[in-house]
Amino acid sequence: MAHEQISPFDIVFHWRNAQLLLNTVLLVAGVLAVTVSLAVPAAWLTTCTSLPGRRLFTLLGVLPLVVPGYLMAYTFRSLGGEIGVISQLFGIVIPRPSGYFGALLALSLYNFPYMFLNLRASLRELDPALEESARTLGSTPPAVFTHVVLPQLRPAMLTGAFLIGLHVIADFGVVSIMNFDTFSLALFQQYGMPNRTTAAWLALMVIAMAVIFLATEALLLRGLRLDRVGSGTHRMRRRATLGWWTLPAIALLTLLAIVSVGVPVSTIAYWSLRCTWSLTMLEDVRDAIVNSLSGSVPAAIVATAMAIPIAYMARRYPSKRSFYLERVAYLGFATPPLAFALGLIFVAKYTAPVLEYSLILLVFAYSMYFLAEAVGPLRNSLYRASPRIEEAARSLGCNGFTAFWRVTFPVMRNGIVVACALVFLSCMKELPLTMMLAPHDFHTLAYNVYSYAADDAMFHEAAPYAVAILLVSTGLVAVLLMRGRKLV
Amino acid sequence: MNKYNILSKLALTFLVAVIVTEFNARAAKAEDDTLVLYCGRKKSLVGPIVRRFERETGIDVKVKYGSTSQLALALLEEGKRSSADIFWSQDAGTLGALTAVDRFAVLPDWVLSTVHERYRNPDGRWVATSGRARVLAYSSKRVKVDALPESVFDLTDAKWRGRVGWAPTNASFRAFVTAMRNEHGDEKTLAWLLAMKRNKAQVYSRNTPIIQAIANGEIDLGLPNHYYLLRFKKVDSTYPVEQTFFKAGDIGNLINVAGVGMLSTSRHKQAAARFAAFLLTPPVQQYITSEIFEYPVTEDVIVPEALSAASELNEKAPKVDLDAIADVEGTLKLLREAGLL
User: Fold this and answer.
1) Which of A13, A20, A83, A171 is the mutation pick for testing B, counting most B CBs within 10 A?
2) Is A232 on the interface with B (CB under 8 A)?
C-alpha cells in the first residue's frame, strides 16, 4: 500500500482554497452586516427608549445564545421542503434554507446576541451630556447619533464584530448542515481522514485568517479613549419616548424574537412531545446536566479570572507586550477546536500525563478556548473606569491591588457578570473539544443532543437533552438579567 | 470585604473537590475489571449494548464516544501511553489503517472463530461486528422502479442531471471510491467522479441529509448507506423514499463493515477479548439487526423484512478485500484532483 505524501505547496495553494477563502470572507461580511443592522436598533430600543416590555425583549434578545448553532440551523432547515413543518402545517412548500443564505440566516440569528449585549453595555454608559451639548450646538438627532453616539459605540461594535467574526470563521456545524463550503468545514472534513499533515496545514491557514482579523480590529481601536476627563460621573439618561413608533418597534422586536428564539424552541417542544419519556432517560438527562455544569461553571470562573488581568493590563498599561498578550488570549478561539484538542493531548502526554482526559484538562481547555469571550466585556467595562480615581486611591495610601479591588473592580462588575455568562453558555453548547478531551463516560448535554439528532432520525430522542440545555442556560441568563437594573 | 472572603473560600473548596473527585476516579481505574472502549459509534445506537455487557460480566466499561476518524487520530497521538483497550470503528478503512501501523493485537481464536473469514482481518487483528451496504435511494413519488439505473456508472447519464445527491466528504463514500479504484482502476474512477460533477450531482455533507433531500423534493436519487432509510422508516413508515441495490456485483453495492480491534498496548486484553466476543453473540447481533438495521456477521440471526435477506446481499455485493480499502491516501488524492475535497 503506497502512501504518497502530498507536498505542503499543493495543500496551501490549491485552487479550491481560494474558493473556500472567498466563501468564508463573504459569509463573515454578510453575518456582520446583518447582526449590526439587527443589534443596533434592538439595543437602542431596549436601552434608551421607553419601550414597554424592555426587560422581556432584553431577555429574548439574549436567548439565541442558549441554542446550539447546529440545532438552530437544523430547525430552520426542517421548516421548508415537501415534508417540512411549513408544508405540514400550511400546505405551502417553500425551499429549505441552504447554502450561503441559509448559513447567513442561522449564523446571524445565533450570533447577534454578542453584538446586542456589547452594544447594550456601552449604551448604558453613554453620557447624555455629550448628546445634549451637540443638540444645543445645532445638530439634528440623526447627526447626533452619527457623530456623537456611534463613535462611542466603536469599541463595543468592534468587540462584538470581532467575536462574531471568529465564531463564523470557526463554525463548521451550521455550514455543514447548510451545505456551504468554508475553510473550517473543509478542515473538519480533513480531520475525518487519517492524514494529519493536510489537516495541520489547513488549521494553520485558518489561524492565519483569524490573526489577520485580529490585526484589523486592533488597528481600528487604536488610540481610543472614552473615559471622562472632568470630575464626577455621568447623569442617568432620560429615556426617549417613542409615541406612535411604539407599535412598529414592538412588532420588529417580536418578529426578531419569533424567528431567533421561537423557531428553535417550538421545534424542540414538538420533538419532545413525540419522545418517549422514561425514568432511565431522566436519569441520563440528570447525569448529563451534572456533567455539563461541572465543566461549564468552573470554566466560566477560570476564564474570567484569567481575563481580568489581561483586560486590565491592556487598558491601563498599553504597550507592545500587553497588546500581544491580549491578542494571544484571542488565539485560543482562533484555533480550530480539533487542532486545539490534539495539541493539548500532546502537551499533556509529555508534561502531566496524569491530567490526560481529566476534568481539569477539559476545564482548562474550555477556559483557554473561550478566553476571548471573557476579555471583550471586561475590556469594554474598563473603558469607562477612569484611571484618575484609582490614582487618587493610591495617593491616599492603598497599595496597587487594594486600589484595583476597591475602585476599579466594582466598576467592572457588569463586565465580569457578562463575561462569566458568555463563557458558561458557550461551554454548555460546546462539542468538539468535549468529544476529544473529556474523561471517559463524561457525556454532556450537547453531546447527547448531537448524538441523537445529527445522523439518525431520532430527533425526538434528542429532545430531553435539548430541553435541558435550554432550561439551564435560560435559567442562568434570566437570573442575571432580573437581578438588577445595572447588570447587563 | 466579607463577601469576597466567602467567595474565595467557596472557590477554593470547589477546586479541592474537583481535584479529589479526579483522583478518586483515577484510583478506580487501576482495578482489573475495567475496560476502556474508544467507540466510533454513537451512544444512541450502542449504549444499550455496552450497558448489557456491564450487567452480564460485571466489567466496568468506560466509553469514549467520538467520530471514528477523530478517535483514530487520538489513538495515534496517544501512542504507547494510550489507555484505550478496544476500539470500535465505524468503517473497515480505519481498522486497516491502524492495523498497518501495528496498533492492534491478534485476537484470540475463540473470538475469531465465530465469524466467516471474509468478516475478519486475515491475521486476526480485527473482526467485523456488522455489515453496512451502499445502496441507491430514490423518491417513491417521482421515480419509477423500471427507470432506475442498473449500475452506479449510469448515474452520469444526462437524464439524471441535477437529480442525484452524494456525500463526497463522507467516510463511507471514501471507502466506496477506494473499492472502485481497486476494481476499475484510477482512471475510470476519476472519469466517473468528474462526470458526476459535470452532471451536477448535489453535494451533501453526510448521508442522512441525502435521504431528507429526496423526501423534500430537492433530488430524486441518492447514494447513502442502507441503514439510514430504515431508521427513518421505523419512525415514519410512510416516508416517501425507497432504496434498492444496483445490479449484482456492481461496485455501487459495496459492503463495508463496522468492527473492533484490541489495542496492543492494552492492559486488559482478557476483558477486551470478552467484549469483542460479546458483540458477536446472538442477542447482540439480533439487536444490531433489528434496532440499528445493519447486517449481522453471524448466522442464526432473524433478519427483519426491511433488510434484504443476507443471501441476496451476498449475491449483489461485489467481491472486495476489506483490508485493501485502507489505502485512503490515493483516494484522497483522486478526490482532490476531482475538486471534491
Assistant:
1) A83
2) no
List pLDDT tens digits, range B214-237. 998 899 999 999 988 888 888 788
Using a CB–CB cutoff of 8 Å, tell me whether B19 touches chain A. Answer: yes
Q: Cβ of A391 under 8 Å from any chain B Cβ?
A: no
- Residue of B11, B65, B70 with shortest CB distance to A301: B11
The answer to whether B166 and B268 are in contact (CB under 8 A) is: no
Residue B187 buriedness (CB in 10 A; 0-12 / 13-18 / 19+): exposed
Q: What is the pTM of this model?
A: 0.82
Average pLDDT value for chain A: 82
Of B22, B36, B208, the CB nearest to A455: B208
What's the CA angle centered on A338, arms A333 and A341, to 5 degrees?
80
CB atoms within 10 A of CB A50: 13
Please give the residue of chain B at the shortest CA–CA distance from A187.
B341
DSSP 8-class letter at B225: B
Q: How far is A111 from chain B (nearest CA, A)?
A: 23
Q: Which residue has the cell 469483542?
A: B276
Instruction: Please give the C-alpha separations between residue A224 and each of A131, A380, A415, in angstroms, as whole numbers.
Output: 18, 11, 19
Q: Which residues of A touch B326 (CB under 8 A)?
A: 1
Q: Is B185 in CB contact (< 8 Å) with chain A? A: no
Residue of B286, B283, B245 lying closest to B149 (CA atoms): B245
Tell me the ipTM for this assembly: 0.77
Q: Tell me how far the alpha carbon of residue B248 is from its chain's centroid.
A: 23
